[in-house]
Structures are given as C-alpha cells and as structure tokens.
Write a structure and sequence with these properties.
By secondary structure, the chain is of the alpha+beta class. It is about 60% helix and about 15% strand. It contains 11 helices and 8 strands. The strands form 2 sheets. The protein has a 6-stranded antiparallel beta sheet with strand order 2-3-4-5-7-8, with no helix packed on it.
Length: about 475
C-alpha cells in the first residue's frame, strides 16, 4: 500500500526547528498519534459498541408484540367459518406476559365454543410460568449475559489498546537506538576520515611512517562498513515504525526524512520513573485480564441458573377476563364473572438433555476457575521477572555510563601521548574504538530500559487505562 508522504509537521517540534528544519518525534506524541489513528486502535474502540448491540438484541426479547390471525373457510358457495383474533402481548421481567385482544368469530358451521358476540369478544389477562421459567427464562438469561459482556468489553478494549501501545512503544525505542547508534558511527567515520587525511599528509612530510596511513585506512574502512550496516538497520526500524503512523481518517503516514527521535541528552534529563517495589498480589488480582475471566464466570453462572431451571416441570397458567365491547369500549358492562382460564404442564421423564447441559456448564465453570488461577500465577511471575529485569537494566545503564566516561578519559590521555610521540596510532584507534563502543552500549541500554518500562506498565495494563 502506497503511503502519502507527509512530514508530520503537526508533531511536537524541537525548539530549534526554525533554524535546523529538524522534526523531533517525541515518544508521548508518537504514542498519542498511534492511539488516535491506528486501525487496531479504531477497532478496539468498537468493542464496547459491539457489546451494546448484544444488550439491544437481548432487550428485544421483551418488546411488545402486535399480532393478527385470520382464518376463513369457503366451500360450495358457503362460508363455513371466519376466525379473527387481534392480539397485543407485553412480556415482563418476572416471567409474566400481559395480553389483550379481540376475537370475532362467525360462520354457519362454527364450533359453538368459538362463538363470539356480535361486537366480538374482548379479552385481557396474563400468562405465567409457575415452574420452569418462574425464576429465570431464556429472555432474562440472554439479557443478563449481554449486560455482563458489556462490562467485560470495557476491559477487553483496554487490553487490546495496551497491547498495541506496547508494540508501538517497542518500535519507537528500537528506532531511537538505531538512529543514535548511527549518529555515533557517523561521528566515528568522520573522525576516521580526518585522521586518514592527516596521516597521509604527515607521511608525505616525513613526520609519520607510511605504515600509519595503512592503519588509518583500515580503521576508516571498518567504520564505513559498520555505518553502512547500521544505516540498513535504521531504515528497517523506520519502516517498521511507519506501520503505526496513521491519521484518524484512516490515511497512512510515513516519517519525514528529517524526523529524529528524542535526543539522548533529553532522555538523560528526564525524571527517574518511580517503580513500585512492594508486593504485586494486589496488582495481579485487579488485572483486567483476570477481570475478563471473572466476567466469563458470571456469564457461566447465569447459564448454570438457566440450565438448573430446565430441570423443573413446565407449568403455564393462563387467565383472561372476557367482555363484549359496546361502542368500542371493551370495559362496558364488565363483569369479573366472565373469564377464561387454563393450565398446562409437561416434563420430560429422564431429563437427560437438561442434566447434560447443567453438567457441561459446571465443568466449564471449573475449567474457567482453573484458568483464572493459572493466569494469576503467570501474571505474578511475569511481573516479578519484568521488575527484576528493569532494575537490573537500570544498574547496567549506570555502569555503562560510567564506563563511557572512563573510556573518554583514557582516549584523551592517549591522544596527548600520541601528540608527544609516546604512543602509537594503533593504541589511539584501540582507545577510540572502545570509547565509541561504550557510547553505543549506553544508547542500547537507554532504549532497553524504556522498553522494559513499557513491558512493566503493559503487564499492569497501565499503558492505556
């Protein structure tokens, strides 16, 4: 897919932008852009909306229903009967159904029990489940599960966004490391070029042996090869970073050639991140991932209640008051002595299907509980390991910073000896290579510390709350 070349001018720029034309892409700005524009972020934001449709669908089970039934028979130029029933039903939460309607039946061969007055017969009453369906039925079970899923969707959205932020953050700090490593190697190459030219000039004047030009040339060639390899790594890191840059309207972006990551000195001046060093049990127990599993257990508990309800006999009671409407008034001349009622009951003899469904749900609950215990232990171990790894990386970073300062001091001393003729070019190159390697190590561990911090925050689902 071809990306639009967009300079990301709207990003937070460095203070010297007007003079140097350098775009500094700060990590917090980058992460915000990912959160606002990346397709996976947009997809995660749809999770609660999708869950809301389940709630709406489940509420549909309680929608009032208007129905009309007409049945007529004509044979031999005679109308045997005409049966008409207009009905309005309102399901309620407690397993009751309110209903009202108007029957109009006529015909010469109509069953006498179906006869209605001339104006029709109005009825109104209830139907109730006294056994199976009294405490919970399919409609109530689906609505309860949909509400639980809606709550769970908030945590699922948070987990999805945290995973995206972790991947994007790793990509940014890898780009940071490759960029500044390239800057260090470019500086080394420039110094090597100057020294090679100086050695050649001094050799022509007789101040240095020609063998020093060979030593300087070898060093220059090695550094040129290292820089070329590093440039390839930087191009790969920048290309990988591009996949996280999108506009909110779905337009993909790419880094400007002038874009730079956070300067190393700015990172060094940032406040030290405070790391929680106490017990992590509470953080594990409150983790959204375990919350999702807990919501799954709530759904299974609803299913278990519903399946247990199926073990009861099905007993339905119906009661309707009857009256002939006068001048479209269904309550005119109303009498409580006119009514129709009935009761129906049925129950499977062995209940094998119902008992199997209940057992399956119970087994699913036990499996999910075991899964929660396993995930809890896994999160605990990962948090402890991530914290230890981060603290160790911080200590190593300080060691490498001190080592970088020491190698610079040794290099400066060696250069002084070289100028007075008490050292060789080989020793200068050795000290210089050690100094550059130490600087590369500092950049590497700066990026590593930031990545490990992201991992620590990710394990707590704190990258996006």
């Amino acid at each position: 897919m071809r990306k639009n070349s967009f300079a990301l001018i709207w990003l937070v720029l460095s203070a010297s932008w007007a003079w140097s034309q350098t775009v500094v892409l700060r990590p917090e700005t980058f992460m915000l852009q990912v959160l606002q524009g990346h397709p996976l972020a947009q997809q995660a934001k749809l999770i609660p909306d999708f869950a809301q449709t389940y709630v709406l669908k489940a509420r549909g089970g309680f929608d009032p229903k208007l129905s009309y039934d007409l049945s007529q028979k004509y044979y031999g130029d005679k109308m045997y009967f005409s049966l008409s029933d207009a009905q309005f039903k309102v399901p309620t939460w407690f397993g009751l159904t309110l209903q009202t309607g108007l029957e109009q039946n006529r015909g010469i061969y109509l069953d006498p029990q179906g006869l209605t007055p001339q104006n029709g017969l109005w009825y109104g009453g209830i139907s109730a489940n006294l056994g199976n369906g009294l405490l919970i039925d399919e409609r109530r079970a689906e609505l309860q599960k949909a509400k639980v899923y809606l709550q769970s969707s908030q945590l699922e959205q948070r987990l999805a966004l945290n995973e995206l932020m972790l991947e994007a953050g790793y990509a940014y700090w890898d780009w940071y490391m490759q960029y500044h490593a390239g800057s260090i190697l470019k500086e080394a190459l420039d110094i090597g070029a100057v020294r090679l030219a100086a050695m050649r000039r001094m050799a022509e004047l007789g101040d240095r042996p020609y063998i020093d030009t060979v030593e300087a040339a070898i060093q220059y060639q090695n550094r040129a090869a290292a820089l070329a390899e590093q440039n390839a790594k930087l191009a790969a890191a920048a290309a990988f970073l591009d996949r996280y840059l999108w506009q909110p309207d779905g337009t993909p972006l790419e880094l400007s050639p002038d874009a730079q990551p956070l300067p190393t000195d700015s990172l060094a001046l940032q406040a030290v991140k405070l790391l929680y060093t106490g017990p992590v049990d509470s953080m594990v127990n409150q983790h959204p991932y375990l919350g999702v599993i807990s919501y799954k257990l709530e759904v299974l508990a609803v299913e278990k209640r519903y399946n247990r309800e199926q073990l009861k006999p099905q007993i339905e009671l119906k009661y309707n008051l009857l009256n002939e409407p006068i001048q479209y008034n269904p309550l005119a001349q109303f009498s409580i002595n006119d009514y129709k009622w009935g009761v129906s009951a049925q129950m499977p003899l062995f209940l094998r299907k119902e008992r199997a469904a209940l057992q399956q749900t119970q087994l699913q609950i036990e499996q999910t509980q075991l899964q929660r215990q396993d995930r809890s232990a896994e999160l605990y171990a990962k948090m402890m390991a991530a914290r230890a790894e981060y603290l160790n990386a911080l200590q190593q970073l300080e060691v490498f910073k001190s080592n970088a300062q020491s190698t610079k001091m040794l290099l400066a001393a060696e250069l002084n000896l070289f100028e007075t003729g008490e050292s060789s070019l080989f020793m200068v190159n050795t000290r210089e290579s050690a100094a550059f390697q130490a600087a590369l190590k500092v950049v590497e561990y700066q990026a590593k510390c930031e990545q490990l911090w992201l991992k620590w925050e990710f394990l707590q689902a704190n990258l996006v709350r």
